[in-house]
């Protein structure tokens, strides 16, 4: 499952550099996560790094992009090939 940044985002800039896949970018109003690049840090870290550093806990699983661990790992392999 990809992650999504909620409206509570304060644009603090700490999540973007933590993403090993470059999935986070500045959107029109708040940061956004590209679901085709988000692996929840599977293959890189034990926990999603953006969630670890977010000071307002505004990052959650995206119900519109459901993926299991195996799917996230396959995406990681495609992105790092």
Automatic annotation (TrEMBL):
Residues 1-29, 31-64 form the 4Fe-4S ferredoxin-type domain. Keywords: 4Fe-4S, Iron, Iron-sulfur, Metal-binding. InterPro entries: 4Fe4S_Fe-S-bd, 4Fe4S_Fe_S_CS, PSI_iron-sulfur_center, YfhL-like. It holds the Pfam family Fer4_7. It comes from the Bacteria. This is YfhL family 4Fe-4S dicluster ferredoxin. It comes from Methylomonas rapida.
């Amino acid at each position: 499952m990809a992650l999504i940044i909620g409206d509570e985002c304060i644009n603090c800039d700490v999540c973007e550099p933590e993403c090993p896949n470059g999935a986070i970018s500045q959107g029109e109003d708040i940061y956004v996560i590209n679901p085709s690049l988000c692996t929840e840090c599977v293959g890189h870290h034990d926990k999603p790094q953006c969630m670890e550093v977010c000071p307002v806990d505004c990052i959650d699983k995206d119900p519109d992009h459901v993926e299991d661990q195996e799917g996230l790992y396959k995406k990681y392999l495609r992105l790092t090939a």
